[in-house]
Structure formats: structure tokens, C-alpha cells
Amino acid sequence: MFLPRSAPTSRSSARPAARGSTALLGALAFGLVAIAPAAAAADDEYPLTPSPPGAAVYFVNLNDGDTVSAPVKVVFGLSGMGIAPAGIEQEATGHHHLFLNRAPLNEADVGEIIPGDEEHIHFGGGQTEAVLDLEPGAYTMQLVLGDAAHIPHEPPVASDVITITVQ
Length: 167
Fold this sequence. Notes:
This protein is mostly beta strands. 7% of the residues lie in helices and 28% in strands.
């Protein structure tokens, strides 16, 4: 389906979670995925991390309705907060997650660890861009900022959902 082709910028101490997916294994090989242990309930061990008023995450180089060619470069934008690798607890920071072909972030997702799978691509090294090898077709994308433990902030910092078509 896809393979992120971005070089890691740092290592995370969180343990990766693998589910046998070739795409996920590819992401692991490039050091892009770092997942907090899924067995830990967010409410029990990880309090919600506040986000500053006006914080926003957005796509720098893609717009809703764009038609692009593979490989697809995705540049992540962020205002009102900073970037820190997964596992690093620092006020008003987080790291990017790309939701691919899934429902938009909703209230049920707040307080839950963002899973690591083909629909949830983690950039726990603090990456601000990625190159994805996507097959031709339509894709929905949403950026979600996660805290040190891969949990959306409160209130969530999430982009609008966009749809792109890969030729």
C-alpha cells in the first residue's frame, strides 16, 4: 500500500507495536513508528496534555482535492506549539500522526493512545515531512498532534480532513 521513505531524526524510547503489516514493518525499518504500550489505558497512566489556545496543525503542500503523483511528499505545518519526539514531555509540544483513510478524529479518540497501523502513521522522531509510496487512488488524510505518549492533546490539535487523488 505505502512505505514512508523519510529518514528518522531521532530515536524514541517507546516500544513499537507491530501487527504484521508490510507497510508498518517498512515504517519500523525507517524508525518512523514509536508507539506507547497499547495495553496502558490513557486515563489510568497518562493524563490529558493541554494544548495552547489557537494551536493548529495543517498540510503545507497539499490541499483538499489535489491530484498528485507517487511518491507523495507530505509536509506538516504547526503553529502555536513546538515539535518534540515521542517520549519527551515538554510543555506545548507534540509530534505528528497522519490518519490515512479513516474517520476523522472524534471525541472517542481523545484520551486514547493513537494506534500504530496502516491508518495511523506515527512520526515519533519529530519528523515534519514524509514521502509516501501510495498506490493510485483516492486517499483521505488528517494530521493529529500527539503528546509524548501518543495521545491527542486537550483540546485536540488536528487538521481538516483532506482528500487527494494519486495518479
